[in-house]
Amino acid sequence: MALHLSTSFCLFSITITFILVHVPTSVSAIHAKYEKCIAPFRCANLENIEYPFWGASRPEYCGHPSYHLDCEGEVAEISIMERSYRVLHINSSSGTLTVVVEDYWNDICPSNLVNGTINSSFFNYTSDTENITLYYHCPPPVKDISAALLPFKFNCSSEETDTNNYYFIWGNDRFNSNILYTISNYFENCGTNVTIPVRQSAFLFLKRYPASANVSKALKEGFDLQCYANNTLCDKCKGSGGLSGFDTDTDEFTCYCPDMPYSLTCPQKGTSHPFIHYLCITEFP
Questions:
Q1: 3-class DSSP state of 239
Q2: 3-state SS of the chain: helix, strand, coil percent to 5?
């Protein structure tokens, strides 16, 4: 038997398809994840945070797994390489954040001495970053280098019974070549040393005015990190009117659009809906 669908049914199918494809978003159902991710995100002291960050009331699928913010308390925190960093500022347009090693917030001599350096595929230092090294539990310096090290000394205890010495330093450009070898050997005998990133402006000020108070100030100002979380894909998604996100089931980037999630970008206006097809089959005699 020849397959034949009536003209009226064909026109009906086309009409229904046209309505479904061209119905304004305002009167169609907004996808739940799109609606959740477009909502303003505030985390402790930070406002208007966007992808790749998530936390608190913002679900993980709105961000990237490596950019979870702890929003409890008065200041947001982020864990990088199992180390806690206090987040002072987030610039969504440039994809950067300013952080401070939590253990060194307001304390140059924390009980937990840890390096603040970062080696991660999801973060990188900006060009505005330098390193300083802090030496703890050093022995009394020999007479030949005692005067040279004095400007770089800081205290961890006000008690006179503390016979340890503590120093901050950067590179070797501050020392005379005649005593450089002796100083290098001296620092090898210190109990512990840690490297902490700081902003270049604070670093240059510290080089000009070496003092323990300026070290504490530099540590408290923190340093900037660049985020790397599907930046190119995110730009394309946002350009098409979507919201960047992450599919936790497939572990892949996703683009949340008003009607549904897509892998890369939202469809352009006027394109066919992926689940709607014209049904008009006619066999001519």
A1: helix
A2: 30, 25, 45
Tell me the two tokens of residue 169.
Answer: 């330093």
Q: Is 194 left (phi over 0), alpha (psi -120 to 50) or beta?
A: beta
The residues pairing with 120 across neighbouring beta strands, listed in sequence order, are 123
| Rounded Cα gap, residues 167 and 134, in angstroms | 6
Largest distance between two CA atoms of the chain:
111
Cα–Cα distance list, 71 to 38, 45, 55, 82 (Å): 18, 9, 7, 17
Task: Check residue 28 and give its pLDDT.
Answer: 46
User: Burial, 252: exposed, middle or buried (Cβ in 10 Å; 0-12, 13-18, 19+)?
Assistant: exposed
Contact call for residues 51 and 243 (beta carbons, < 8 A):
yes
Tokens encoding 95: 């994809």
Residue 56 contacts residue 71 (beta carbons within 8 Å) = yes
* pLDDT level of residue 30 (50, 70, 90 thresholds): confident
Q: Using DSSP, state whether 256 is helix, strand or coil.
A: strand
User: Both tokens of residue 32?
Assistant: 């739940």
Measured in whole angstroms, the distance separating CA 109 from the mean position of its chain's CA atoms is: 26
Q: Is the pLDDT of residue 279 over 90?
A: no
- Per residue in 70-96, pLDDT (tens digit) is 999 899 999 999 899 999 999 988 889
